[in-house]
Amino acid sequence: MASHIHPNDRPKQPGHLETATFEGKNKVLGFWLFLGAETVLFACLFGTYLALRNANMGGPTTQQLYDLKLVGLATFFLLTSSLTSVLAMNAMNRLKQGAMQFWLGVTVLLGLAFLILEIYEFVHYVHEGHTFTSSAFGSSFYALVGTHGAHVTFGLAWIMTLMIQTARRGLTYEMAPKLFVSSLYWHFIDVVWVFIFTLVYLLGKVG
Amino acid sequence: MGTLLVVLVLALFLAAILTGGYNKDFLERVRHSKVWDWLTTVDHKKIGIMYFMSGFFFLLIGGLEAVFMRLQLIVPNNDLFTGDTFNKLLTMHGTTMIFLAAMPMIFGIINVVMPLQIGARDVAFPFLNSLGFWAFFFGGLLLNLSWIFGGAPNAGWTSYPSLALMGFNPGPGIDYYVLGLQISGIGSLMSGINFLATIINMRTPGMTFLRMPMFTWTSFVTSALLLFAMPPLTVGLLLLMFDRVFGSAFFDPALGGSPVIWQHLFWIFGHPEVYIVILPAFGIMSEVISTFSKKRLFGYTSMVFATVVIGFLGFMVWVHHMFTVGLGPMSNSIFAVATMAIGVPTGIKVFNWLFTMWGGELHFKTPMLWAVGFIPTFVMGGVTGVMLAVPPADFQYHDSYFVVAHFHYVLVGGTVFALFAGAYYWWPKMFGKLLDDRLGKWHFWLFFIGYHLTFFPQHFLGLFGMPRRVFTYQAGYGLESLNMLSSIGAVGMVLGTIIFTINVIKTARSKELAPADPWDGRTLEWSVPSPVPEYNFAQLPLVRGYDAFWIEKQAGNKGMAPAEPLGPIHMPSPSYIPVIMSLGLFIAGYGFVAHAIPVAVIGIAVVFISMFVRSFQQDFGYHIEPEEIVGSAKAKEVKA
After folding, report:
1. Are residues B320 and B443 in the same domain?
2. B230, B256, B612: residue with CB nearest A137
3. Is the domain of B358 the same as that of B283?
């Protein structure tokens, strides 16, 4: 149970640092469980959207509204950020703090690019007359995609917080599980986006 | 905004006056006070006590609301609590009892007992545990403040739109419902995650999954249900809040929305919810029946299997609450069959309890009385449940008192009986003292008889056509005498509860301490002193089989064999952040209720700043040295 490890110690050997301490093991397990709850939360929002997506009440339809080029670019940014997040964790487990910080930085920038595109998209839709209160379609669209966007925003703030902490404290036994669960979270956001891209945008274009 | 500023300045002034400005002595006194200790504690036993006691407080409030309703219905055409007032009473009664009484009291018992049963020193996330409690507490507070500020919710505990939408319900009542439940729901989700991680990761050496006591197993499955059932409620409440506060159109048919979506989301949560509150009750009963029959629980593995199956099927049956919505014969049939299937694992459990008692050495202490009273009562509730599961018959029973009788037979006859049994059984572990057995028996008999007198006639009232949630009835339809009986029965439950309260107070005042193992128990919690030391186990125990402590006693050993040498024990530090964070949620909730978005933003900011502060905090707890542990153990021996 490695109770002699102090959380502020720096690991000397590469490996799965996130589960090197008992607290780390608890944290990773607890976070997986939390992601289970998040999955149900998004499933409910997806269900609501799919039930209401044709209730546009004379406003623009999904076919008229969605622009796959813009969304495709956003998807590219977000999926790539998942890759850079993997690279960051890989660097962490090889005890390469500089490389980890670099890849986390790239992750944040890509996430930011995604967020800017999404905000631009929302502003554009509002001008088209597709708002949160215009129809049940509008409400359910913004609830689903907006909740995802809020998750991205929170994730960015989280990763940046951890980057500052790592810069101050170094790559300690305490930081490793924190960084690891934030990357789990980031991947989860990514997976949700894959479903949004498919069930909202692709289905909205062809379905 | 102006009012807000005034209030803020006033609060700051008050804080300055009360704390004497920045006064170090005063802060030091606060830090060592009992109140501060309880506000900031991360000890699972203290949090469990707070959960249980605040749950009991809300049980009294919810009970009072029920008494008011029975008073209104005692004679036909009564005008004591009519119309909107009655609607508020029935809404708050249901909501309070489910969310603020049953769940917290169960969480209380799980918190105290489960870590002890698996031989753990604490839960996996002590901080989260505290946060979960305070979120529940402030959520419950917000919901109940509605009585004073602006009016209580009045659309039933299910709060269906369109009735719950702004157009039909412009007052703040439903907003209180939405925000109060949202905040306490966050707490429930955290508790679920915490209990799951604790049971998976923190079991003592030798405590394999199939050696876990039945109560721990039911806590485990209940926590899994919490994990997957709370998010649909979160989403439902969020959407309802959007519809009411921000003018969205999820449930508004005029803008293409669909009220049926609420019903689905609510019941995808709502049906697992009834198993969340009944499964731990099954667990408590299993422990009690086994202990007071002096026998190993009959069919332990089939009990575990039945628990897991009930947990799984609990998610497959939500449409049986919606048979009359008109989803079609196909979906109604599928959900009817799934519902009836739950009768099988539940039946397994009932027979196992009976076979545990069969040939056992029965001791009818108070907990056992509750358990024995529970079995036939719960079976009756189960039988009416299967009756309700038949869709064509359900069209007749729907929204009648028959349904009220059914769910009170399972929720009171199941959960409340079990909570009382658990209270009498584990009181020595929670408070170090035994509740009075004689008063306990009075409590049981008054409550048991009063309970059946209240709810048994309601079956017939329902079959005679009396609708639920209606504040009166006409004379001359054969409803008078049964309603009168039902209201008289409520007196028995009130007297029983008063006797329990007296018992609690009497025990708190008494100086007589309970022995570590007053019932000749079978599981690990009875191997540690009462009350339990803050570190639970001086040395983690080595478990050699199911009924771990019983095995050691049968082998002639004094206690559990240690699984580790005596060493310093790591303890988490107390923290004030959970209270602040929950206060932030409370302020945010109040902002949304008042439709004052700046206030809500301030509240949410408090939450996020607290999270940020917590993330930067480096507090790795402290250690209790072996000398202290041995010293306190010796001091106890001298006293004894």
Report:
1. yes
2. B256
3. yes
